[in-house]
Amino acid sequence: MFSAQSLIPRIPKRHALVTRFPVHSSHFRGCTAVSRRQAHQFRNMSHSQNPQDEQAQKGSKFSHLPLSTSGPLECALKGTVLLNHPYFNKGSAFTKEERRDFALHGLLPPQIQSLEQQVQRAYEQYCSQPNDLAKNTFMTSMKEQNEVLFYRLLHDHLDEMFSVVYTPTEGEAIQNYSRLFRRPEGVFLNINDMDSVKRDLAQWGKPEDIDYIVVTDGEEILGIGDQGCGGILISIAKLVLMTICGGIHPNRVLPVVLDCGTNNEELLKDDLYLGLRQKRARGDKYDDFVETFIKAARELYPRAYIHFEDFGLDNARRLLERYRPQMPCFNDDVQGTGCVTLAAIMAGLHISKQKLSDVRMVVFGAGTAGVGIADHVRDAIAADADISPEEAGKQIWLIDKPGLLTTKSESLSDAQKKYAKSHDDWANEKTDLLAVIKEVKPHILVGTSTKPKSFTEEVVREMAKHVERPIILPLSNPTKLHEAVPEDLLNWTDGKALVATGSPFDPVKGPWGKDGKEIEIDVAECNNSVVFPGIGLGSVLSRANRVTDKMLMAASKGVAEMGPALRDDTAPLLPGVDVVRDVSVRVARRVILAAMEEGVVEEKDVPTNEEDLDEWIREQMWDPVYRPLKYVEGNKASRGAKGDLRVLGNPNDVE
Ligand SMILES: NC(=O)C1=CN([C@@H]2O[C@H](COP(=O)(O)OP(=O)(O)OC[C@H]3O[C@@H](n4cnc5c(N)ncnc54)[C@H](O)[C@@H]3O)[C@@H](O)[C@H]2O)C=CC1
Ligand SMILES: CC(=O)C(=O)O
Ligand SMILES: [Mg+2]
């Protein structure tokens, strides 16, 4: 059996390992082949000199593309340092000329292999891992060694590997972060050292080098709660999806964890825990820390889009509301989940032949995701029915631990208050889920409660009594926290329920076809991963300076129109991973068009014609292929290197 570790090449001791690096990082201390200054240049040298030549090579019709993703890469690394750089390393695929020019002789076995052969070998190694967590660790290791191979392997086996590099297995990896830790990746910011935040962030590049930042404070990870600094892995996982699904260049992203302590007692007691061993900071200190991070990120990387992930209930929405009016930022749990859930609902209503304006929806679990979904669906109802959002909110009922949210419920947040029902109307009623279902007769039931099995047979049968095709979306992750599983939902409703789930499930068979014929129903995964890559891609390419509600609504429509259920009512409500890049292009197109209408686009070269727009988007998406390497000396490259991914519109940007 192979161990992931055995894939890391042995290197002479005097060379430090170079991973995805901060540009004047201590990673480079003791690295004889790479000076700190050179390190700064390498990020830029990873881009080719003349994007327009490349466009000619690709046969592009665009005279100028802001980001180009093909053509030779300039590289000043040689020998073992090059082999240990995941972005440049090609392992056994280095060509004869590259082996000569980059001093690789004697460091590689003689056979020169193709990327396809490497993928074949890597896949065999992957399959030989004993369980999903070991597979996840193998993939992490692969990413640290050779990014192109990692992404190509993932690309070629995405359907099989999605749940290993993302939920649910990534959740397990996060819970075990301090035990599985081998090598750091990402930015660890420390609340006890706020003065260093800007310095720590500044190591990662020049202002134009970073397009996309995912930041978490680790408080509410994927339904598994407070994971402290292990939350860095959710930032990394979301960025992997950003690259594989949205084509964002893997060297132009930054995963960040804001370490504010943790309230997870197990971690606090664990000697191996790697994060700050203190209770979570709250109040002014926490806010100052977030503000310091945001200010530094904006100053250092003014073009970067900031994606908030898995913040705790108290902070997620508050931070989003504070920063949204000032910059392109997005909270995936609030907005991404809202967008994808609305898309699933739209596809479901297409089958049930109902209008959005007429629906009643119950959301079980009125936290970050639940209220985010409620808001997005409320706005869509309001637009469809041409009524105010307040009026539309009357069609939505939120339930949390104590039951239905009413005007007498204690300690409601402002966001929840908008949905609180009159206490007088409910004073003599029970307000648990079953009672609310009986009373409200909803068309849609959403679960974001983390309470497994809460959609009981009784609840589901009650719902199905009143509506022909109930739309039921148990979204809590990971899999074991789902409010119900598809098999039960379909069995309890004679195959009538229109179901999508937060994590992937196998298709379900049952006698629900014409004349009792057995059919297989493929249930869609309703996860924000379907939509956030396209929203991010559209925002980054158009350099949108805000992410507006209209852009988000457009994203939902983009996903819904690609739902297989629109063409076949036994097909999944949402598109699957097999078409994930097409979905991202569609969503990005919709988002850019909406951003144009909103006047928030800053990129000058965005085509206005829809067909051109698709091509323009696709040409700027990064693909996992090896690009030829061209050796340049550090200094020379520093004068001439022009980022192939940079906007060249500004003459000052061209040296
Ligand atoms: N499928 C997807 O794309 C997404 C799924 N999620 C999942 O949704 C779940 C919730 O996530 P967040 O909203 O971020 O967490 P959260 O902690 O903000 O919200 C959970 C809410 O459920 C409530 N709750 C807990 N037990 C309950 C019970 N027995 N009855 C009724 N309500 C109960 C809590 O009081 C809280 O208000 C998690 O499992 C998460 O993984 C979150 C974001 C996206
Ligand atoms: C999917 C996701 O973002 C979550 O479960 O938190
Ligand atoms: Mg999340």
Structural description of this entry:
The chain is of the alpha/beta class and 655 residues long. It has four domains: 4-159 and 630-653, Hemocyanin, N-terminal domain (Up-down Bundle); 166-327, Rossmann fold, CATH 3.40.50.10380; 335-526, NAD(P)-binding Rossmann-like Domain (Rossmann fold), CATH 3.40.50.720; 530-619, no CATH class. α1 (36-45) packs across α28 (634-640) and α16 (332-352) crosses α25. The termini are far apart. 53% of the residues are buried. Mean pLDDT is 88; it is low at 1-57 and 635-655. Magnesium ion is lined by residues 222, 309-310, 332-333. Pyruvic acid (PYR) binds at residues 167, 222-223, 310, 332-333, 477, 527-528.
Q: Which word captures the global form?
A: globular
Q: What is the number of strand segments?
A: 16
Fill in the CATH topology of the largest domain: Rossmann fold
Bound chemical compounds: 1,4-dihydronicotinamide adenine dinucleotide, pyruvic acid, magnesium ion
Compute the number of structural domains: 4
* Fourth CATH level, the homologous superfamily of the largest domain: NAD(P)-binding Rossmann-like Domain
In round numbers, the mean pLDDT is 88
CATH architecture of the largest domain: 3-Layer(aba) Sandwich
Largest sheet: 7 strands, mixed
The top-level CATH class of the largest domain is Alpha Beta
